[in-house]
Each structure stands twice: as C-alpha cells, then as structure tokens.
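An instance noted here:
***
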Amino acid sequence: MPVQLTKRIVTAAMPQERPYELRDTTVRGLILRVQPSGYKAWIIQWAWGKRRTLGQFGHLTLEQARAHAALAMAEVIQQGLPSIAKAKRTSCTLADFLTDHYAPWVVSELKTGARSLQIIRAAFPDFMSRQLTAIDATAIEHWWKARLATNSVHTGEPVCKATLSRQFAALRSALSKAVEWKLLASNPLLGVRNKSAEGRVVIRYLTPSEESRLRSALIARDSAAVSARVSGNVWRSQRKAAALPLIPEGGYMDHMTPVVLLAMNTGLRRGELLSLTWNDVDLVAKMITVRAERAKSGRQRHVPLNAEALEVLTRWRAQCADRPVIFEPNDVKTAWVKLLSKAKITNCRFHDLRHHFASRLVTKGVDLNTVRELLGHADLKMTLRYAHLAPDHLAAAVEKLAA
C-alpha cells in the first residue's frame, strides 16, 4: 500500500493475520513490512523481485531508513546494483583455505591433486598465515625474486625459472577456485605477467660413459649392501640377536636399482613407476600396463619388457613378492642425488632417464610414432623433440630425391 510514511503511521501500524507492506511515497523503494507477530522491518526494493532488508524498526528510525534507501537507489542509478545487494565475501588464510576447502576437492577431482597441494605448501610457506586477499601481484614479485636467489634443498643448485613458474601456476589455480567458491571477489594473480619460462632446448640424456658410471655405481651400492648384511648378521649372532634376512647374491639393496634400470628400459615416468603393482606386470607376456588413472595423458598403454627389464623385475619379485605395490617409496629424489654423486654425473634429473630411453630408440632407427606410443605422449609434438637424434634417417629420406 503506497503511503507517505510518518513516525506516527509507522508506530501505529498494527499486525494482521497476514504480513503486509507499506510503501513510502517520499523515498522510492522504501518499504515497511509488518509481520503477524508484530515484527516490523525496513526493506529496500530497487527492481521487481530485487530487495534486501535494511534493518528492524526500532533499530533504524524512519529518517535513517530513508537515508539508507536514498543512498541505495542512487547506487542503482550509478552502478546498476546497490552495495547492500553485493554478497559479502569472507576471507581466510591460505593455510585454512588449503586444508578446509581446496584439499578435499583437488585430491578427489585431479589426478595430480595431492602433488599440487604439496607444491603450494612447500613453495609458499610465508604465505600460509596470510589472508587470501593479501596475496597479490606485489607479494608474488617479492616471492619470485627471493626464490631465484636461493638454492634447491635437493640439488643445492639455483632454482630454475621453469620450476618457479609451475609453483606460481599451482597457486594461481587454487585462488581461482577460491573465487568460484565466493571466498575472493577476484583472482589477484590473473593479471600478473606470465612468468613462464622456456622449456629445455637441449634434451638431456646420458652419454655412454655416464651410463656406464651410473650402472657401476648401482652395482657397487648393491654389493656393499650384501657384504654389510653378512657382516651385520655375524655381529648380531655373536650377541645372540636375531639375524636379518640375507640379501641374495646378485640381489638388490633396495628399490633404487630396479627403479633406475626400469626407467632406462621402459621410459616410464617416475610417478608411473612408483605406482605400479604386481597386477600391472605380466612376466609371461613380458608386458607392463600403465593404467589410465596413473598416466599423465589419462590413457592406458602397454609397454613391452626387454630382456634386461624382465630380468630386473624377476629378481626383484623374488625379494619382495609378498608386497602388492612393487616399489613402496613415494619418491627417489634423495637416493638419486646421492647416486649421481657416486657416479660423478651432473645436471641430470631422474626424468632425464625417460629422455635417455627415447633417444636410444630414435638413434637406433625406431620411428617417432612408435616412440610416441611407448612414451605415452598424447601429441606427436612432444616426441618431435627427439627428431634431431636421427640424422641418418632424415638424410636417407632427402637422398631419395636425388634418385
């Protein structure tokens, strides 16, 4: 009911069986709603079906309600929406956001979700206690410069820009979900200059000398473990202690030798190797199955086992056949760094064993599409990085024109 509201009319408005409203004719959009209980509330309506409660009569006088309504209608004219209609977003710290909101979603929805969480927490420890709204372009610039000035805890070498770019991308992706979940008004990192770095131009693979030294280091490592176990059991026997299981002659100290040799002979990614179960291995058919849920491309593939890979898995199974998962550790970084030091090899990642596998295939004349299938590349563009390793094959193709 339109009426010019006064203090007397508002006070005298009596409850009825049903709620009713009095619309002020002095300030457009201001409404007094009276409930059957006697509760009276001030409401602002700026369009059909678009309204918000300003407050209770008694807390807001008629003059105050009119002032709020007039301001809201002015915002409608200027901005199209009054500030009272804008959802109030609550913020939280990055640590709370990761634990309470992001972790449950990313671990269940993304194959690499747990890894993404680990990257963010390890790369941004100083951001954990910050409110999400305090993580902005300036904070990222300071973080970027500080990280470039530090060395990796694993290799002792300076952190490369490609690594920082991946860490930055992981955080930016997480903050995009915070916007989607109304914890942030906008992602402050979307406008940050793309800090992506070019990938490695030179594909790193082992030279024959490096491969020889790596294999020698693995043999020395396992031989030392066999001797140490025998010596240790003699010491335990003298003290009437239970003997530890002997490592069979020609056996392995631990998972490291089988993992490295398999990587060199199958080209499997580190994550694919460490997630293998014995159900994925068919020693009779000489085949490993990389399941879709564990493959980076999301596609299942089958990788044949050559003679060395088959021998490695057969010997390793004799030592640990009672375990469903072939390799129990979650990572091999520490052992890999020590192994490289023993073999006197520098600037080599575990992932480079995958490049080593591919480069050996290409140099022996295997066509690139077959290499692509073995590596599990979704796109041939990734495999073309190895094309320069087959100059004889390319030269022979060009020579056909001379005929």
Remarks:
- The longest strand covers residues 40-47.
- DSSP finds 15 helices and eight strands in the chain.
- The CA atoms of residues 44 and 256 lie 70 Å apart.
- Residues 94-180 form one domain.
